[in-house]
């Protein structure tokens, strides 16, 4: 086979590896952020833009969904937030001349990094049937084409409407209304690949699919678990909150196969103390767990709590259901399984148990390390058991804290971006707009790919995101997308989804968060919901990247007018004045009463959360449900490793900011695979060798990602790590989490092949 990896290692010449860092943030963080901002935006624009991030009169940082809190610093951003802003506020532009110079196939030959570095999209573009290139198209013609293709389908269910998590509440609400007025619930979103497992587990157990912790709970906690999360890179502002909690006396337990820099030690760039010195040691305890070992860990802790009688009887009796069954199940726990699955010693587990028993108030935070496995939903249910056993939900300083990814992914779901909408939501939507919304559940992300692959879906519209690159099984997904009659993307930046297209393709360039949004009634603002259920306004200040951009709200409303000529919805009014959208929301979505009034209060407002606010659990039993979760040890065949696909420090999902992963000691390259030195010795492989990653799955098909450099790294035994999206080709489409259907991007069985081996 060919030894060449065409588009990804493009930029990898000069890869350098050094020892991983122990600490995160601090001065290098700020310097790196400013340097990248100057490169992309120049000095004046950098100052103007970064000072507005997350201020009460400014815009919401597009980086992550971590909340802002009441006391804002002058510079309420982090290195990676600054990179996200610089990516959007860049002064580079992709013009019609650019598209005339490059065929679509040529663009597909370029790396993700190169595509993103070309700058902001500036005008609508079309790739017509049979043409090799994009050419300019008017907005009206673009909407007319979409309308024609949608009208030509045999059923509305032959169209797929994807959403990424940066879309504002206003745009998301209008979008789902359009899609349901058109007649389908095919509304997959990035959440299907992200925190879907959290939503599934929390809805079943506590009745609300969102976290129960607010920012002010962290400093009140005695013990905080950070499980399957790398906040130093992905939620850097969370480190300040953890530092504050520590100062107030909390202990922190990090559970992770990798010793992630930010969890070990933190230098706060917002304070003078952060500049010099060693910073704060954050984690008091580091449990270097094997991939997929968390269900076993929490089940073991629960077993010990029950055995010792260290449970909160009064709470369990009053608020929960299912204790007897859980107790019986836990008594049958097999300790050999626990030690094998976790890779931890009994002494390590006993030590954490002592922390737990000595703590009145406990918070568990988690992210993708828990959600992207086959048993993710049972794992998160077991975390809920753990908290419920000692009454740690619905009181200050305690609770569940799933840390969301995209800055408005939680809000989009609240606004109805969901392929399985609850009946009450559809009833309210239908009553408000006088129509009968479709009731049948739609496709999630994985099902949407299958439908396109099998010719059951023919038109794809993406509201943000990078569908072909973020999804699993890249070869399968790309072939599926290519079968469509039309693929269209509402985007700010060029990405691979513009280069892997259906027969016809549209690029619909949108305003970003940082930009002024002026409609016929005057300047507009939008709103977003953070990871902790706070809703607040976001106002851009920069001049738009091009005069031909439309806001996402305007794009939806104009598309709806073109595609739904008989619609009685006041699309023009919603486009004219976003207050009109918010008025509708206030009557459809519970918790948004007086939306327009409360969103104008400084800092916004908090959505109600029954378990958090009143220990009320709106579940089937009316109580918080303890659950019985079968422990199956994920055993990997001889000579194989379990691979997790992670983010480097220099990327935002599929957007590659740069080629370094500073905290893990990687410079100028991304095709690396991190493996424990003891595993390398057993496999007879050496640090620095080049191998192919070959994924082995029960369908018998081999999936291969060629040419990765081995990096000996202190990860847990039997485990490997490599960056996504280069490794998405290895994740089988049908390998998904039970119940949530999330691709298992954190447990892929691989072998290392090449250099004379296969
Ligand atoms: N700068 C930046 N910020 C981001 C993003 C970005 O790409 N760049 N992406 C945003 C998005 S959409 C999201 S969802 C979040 C993602 O935030 P994270 O979830 O922090 O992102 P990942 O890089 O996927 O890291 C997964 C972490 O879980 C650990 N892990 C993996 N498997 C297991 C396991 O089985 N058990 C345990 N205990 N740990 C495990 C990994 O070692 C790693 O530390 O970040 C958001 N913020
Ligand atoms: N193997 C593997 N795969 C994964 C993951 C993993 O850990 N491993 N993580 C998964 C997760 S957690 C997620 S959330 C998904 C992410 O999936 P997506 O959300 O689909 O991907 P992104 O890379 O965040 O999308 C980036 C694109 O969004 C567009 N964009 C940015 N800002 C805006 C905006 O304001 N408006 C509009 N209209 N467009 C905008 C830009 O054109 C940019 O190119 O990936 C998933 N895929
Ligand atoms: Mo995500």
Describe the structure.
The chain has 758 residues and is of the alpha/beta class. The protein folds into three domains: 140-190 and 408-607, 3-Layer(aba) Sandwich (Rossmann fold), CATH 3.40.50; 196-403, 3-Layer(aba) Sandwich (Dimethylsulfoxide Reductase, domain 2); 641-753, Barwin-like endoglucanases (Beta Barrel), CATH 2.40.40.20. Helix content is 34%, strand content 17%. It contains 30 helices and 33 strands. A six-stranded mixed sheet has the order 6-5-18-17-16-7. Strands 25-32-29-31-30-33 form a six-stranded mixed beta barrel. It has a five-stranded parallel sheet with strand order 12-9-8-14-15, sandwiched between helices. Strand 19 and strand 20 form a beta hairpin. The longest helix is centred in the first third of the chain and has 15 residues, at 27-41. It is globular and about 70 Å long. It starts with 15 loop residues before the first strand and ends in a 5-residue tail after the last strand. The relative contact order is 0.17. The model is unreliable at 1-5 (pLDDT under 50). The protein binds ligand MGD (2 copies) and molybdenum atom.
């Amino acid at each position: 086979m060919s030894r060449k990896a065409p588009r990804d290692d493009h930029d990898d010449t000069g890869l350098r590896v050094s020892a991983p860092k122990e600490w995160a943030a601090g001065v290098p963080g700020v310097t790196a952020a400013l340097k990248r901002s100057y490169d992309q935006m120049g000095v004046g624009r950098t100052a103007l833009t970064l000072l507005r991030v997350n201020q009460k009169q400014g815009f919401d940082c597009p980086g992550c969904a971590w909340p802002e809190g009441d006391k804002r610093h002058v510079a309420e951003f982090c290195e990676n937030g600054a990179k996200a802003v610089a990516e959007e506020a860049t002064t580079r532009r992709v013009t019609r001349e650019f598209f005339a110079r490059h065929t679509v196939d040529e663009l597909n030959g370029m790396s993700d990094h190169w595509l993103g570095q070309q700058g902001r999209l500036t005008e609508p573009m079309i790739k017509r049937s049979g043409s090799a290139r994009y050419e300019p198209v008017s907005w009206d013609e673009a909407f007319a084409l979409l309308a024609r293709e949608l009208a030509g389908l045999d059923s509305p269910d032959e169209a797929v409407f994807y959403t990424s998590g940066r879309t504002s509440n206003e745009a998301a609400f209008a979008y789902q209304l359009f899609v349901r007025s058109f007649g389908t619930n095919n509304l997959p979103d990035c959440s299907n690949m992200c925190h879907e497992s959290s939503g599934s587990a929390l809805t079943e157990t506590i009745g609300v699919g969102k976290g129960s912790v607010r920012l002010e709970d962290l400093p009140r906690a005695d013990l905080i678990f950070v499980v399957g999360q790398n906040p130093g890179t992905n939620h850097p502002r969370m480190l300040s909150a953890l530092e504050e909690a520590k100062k107030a006396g909390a202990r922190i337990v990090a559970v992770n196969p990798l010793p992630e820099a930010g969890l070990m030690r933190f230098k706060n760039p917002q304070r003078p103390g952060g500049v010099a010195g060693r910073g704060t040691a954050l984690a008091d305890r580091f449990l270097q767990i094997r991939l997929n070992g968390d269900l076993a860990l929490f089940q073991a802790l629960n077993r010990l709590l029950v055995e010792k009688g260290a449970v909160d009887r009064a709470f369990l009796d009053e608020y929960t259901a299912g204790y007897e069954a859980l107790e019986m199940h836990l008594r049958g726990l097999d300790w050999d399984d626990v030690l094998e699955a976790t890779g931890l010693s009994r002494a390590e587990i006993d030590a954490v148990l002592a922390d737990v028993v000595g703590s009145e108030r406990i918070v568990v935070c988690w992210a993708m390390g828990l959600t992207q496995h086959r048993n993710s939903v049972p794992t998160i249910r077991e975390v809920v058991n753990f908290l419920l056993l000692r009454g740690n939900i619905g009181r200050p300083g305690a609770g569940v804290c799933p840390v969301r990814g995209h800055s408005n992914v939680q809000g989009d779901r609240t606004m109805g971006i969901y392929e399985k909408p609850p009946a009450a939501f559809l009833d309210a939507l239908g009553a408000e707009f006088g129509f009968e919304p479709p009731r049948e559940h739609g496709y999630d992300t994985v099902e949407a790919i299958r439908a396109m692959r099998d010719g059951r879906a023919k038109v794809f519209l993406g509201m943000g995101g990078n569908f072909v690159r973020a999804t699993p099984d890249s070869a399968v997904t790309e072939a599926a997308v290519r079968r469509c009659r039309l693929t269209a993307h509402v985007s700010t930046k060029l990405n691979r989804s513009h280069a892997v297209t259906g027969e016809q393709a549209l690029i619909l360039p949108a305003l970003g968060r940082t930009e002024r949004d002026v409609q016929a009634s005057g300047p507009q603002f939008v709103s977003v919901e953070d990871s902790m259920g706070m809703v607040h306004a976001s106002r851009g200040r920069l001049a738009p990247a091009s005069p031909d951009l439309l806001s996402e709200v305007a794009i939806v409303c104009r598309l709806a007018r073109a595609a739904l000529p008989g619609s009685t919805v006041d699309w023009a009014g919603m486009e004219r004045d976003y207050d009109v959208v918010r008025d509708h929301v206030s009557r459809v979505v519970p918790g948004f009463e007086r939306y327009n009034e409360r969103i104008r209060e400084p800092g916004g407002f908090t959505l109600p959360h029954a378990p958090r606010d009143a220990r009320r659990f709106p579940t089937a039993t009316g109580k918080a449900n303890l659950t019985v979760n079968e422990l199956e040890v994920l055993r990997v065949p001889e000579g194989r490793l379990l691979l997790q696909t992670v983010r480097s420090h220099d990327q935002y999902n599929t957007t590659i900011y740069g080629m370094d992963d500073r905290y893990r000691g990687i410079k100028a390259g991304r095709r690396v695979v991190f493996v424990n030195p003891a595993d390398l010795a057993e496999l007879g492989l050496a640090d620095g060798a080049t191998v192919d990653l070959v994924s082995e799955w029960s369908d018998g098909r081999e999936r291969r990602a060629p040419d990765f450099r081995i990096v000996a790294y202190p990860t847990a035994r039997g485990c490997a790590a490599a960056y996504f999206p280069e490794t998405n080709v290895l994740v089988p489409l049908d390998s998904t989490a039970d119940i949530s259907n999330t691709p298992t991007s954190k447990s892929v069985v691989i072998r290392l092949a090449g250099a004379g081996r296969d």
